[in-house]
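User: hey, got a sec? need Tyrosine--tRNA ligase folded
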Amino acid sequence: MNQDSVKTFPLTEGVGQALEVTLRGVDELLPKDEWIQKLAKSEATGVPLRIKLGLDPTAPDIHLGHTVVLNKMRQLQDLGHQVIFLIGDFTTLIGDPSGRNSTRPPLTAEQIKANAETYYTQAAKVLDPAKTEVRYNSEWCDQLGARGMIQLSAKYTVARMMERNDFHTRFTEGSSISLHEFLYPLLQGYDSVALKADLELGGTDQKFNLMMGRHLQAEYGQEQQCVLTMPLLVGLDGVHKMSKSKNNYIGITEDANTMFAKVLSISDDLMWDWYTLLSFQSLEHIAQLKADIAAGGNPKHAKVALAKEITTRFHSAAAADAAEQDFTNRSKGGIPDDIPEVSLSGAPLGIGALLKQANLAPSTSEANRLIDGGGVRIDGTVISDRGLKLDAGSFVLQVGKRKFARVTLA
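Assistant: Yep! Here you go:
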């Protein structure tokens, strides 16, 4: 470590403000004192800090859960620091074992390439593209070769690797651990060496991998990065972390009406965590909203404001306004202006077959289940008879709160 890195720099008001921005919504900042000095050094020297976030393109789409760390990156970016958006095209070939109880099946190179093409385009909806450095870890990992991989592996012990919770649990339970999985945290840590990162961000489930970056930077004689972990965003169900596999997510490419309605569906308690982790409103503003509701205000007003903010970010203010109006119409039993037009033949046609052919139910049996649950309406009237046959004519079919079709049956 060079002499400049251990010099003490003054803690100014600007450093204090930058620290406050850093700590908003954070789970852990390690080591905090080192980060304060990095901020102070950056302010004194005018050299931006290098902020790293690595994402593996394991799926083509990003959801709001991913944007928790992206939001933090944007906040640090707005302070003037250099953001590095790292696409883990090489590490995805291994598959991140974090938090898993079995070996993750690796993706093919073609799948990785296809997913990576959409990742940054979506992330740029949060980050400032003009101030973002986009990198791929295949740049340096491909160059390691067999000799470099062996030399890298020599910088960490198996005993230390087995301290990692998921590896330890799988070993004690007799579940398999493939040798290539040990390479994942090593390579993620090596990314920090290659990029000379000052700070690396990730979810709480990434702490071991993030700390590996600190270890390897010391091994390679670099100034060590600090580590910042963000909480995992709880999904729409209010129980599990947001995940496509749990179907409790909001994709950032979903249409504005769906996005707005999904945000409004979360619980009043969960709303405050979402405000802290997803909103760009100040903490003072959020505290005032809480105080207003505690004094008897309607929490729906705060939730609508959050839904509009998120929808505006990924669409536009006009789209958010239209989504609010659409939601209001639906909640009053109204029919949205823009619904699919479907022309069918075969009158008289059974209601179950009609719902299936209008793409409002995946099968006749599912259509019958929806009817039994009171979730089907024709021109606003709830249908309870699964044996109903409809004659020729035009009418509006509705399933649940959000699915509509204007059907012309001949």
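Quick note: The domain at 256-331 is CATH 1.10.240 (Tyrosyl-Transfer RNA Synthetase). Let me know if you need anything else on Tyrosine--tRNA ligase.
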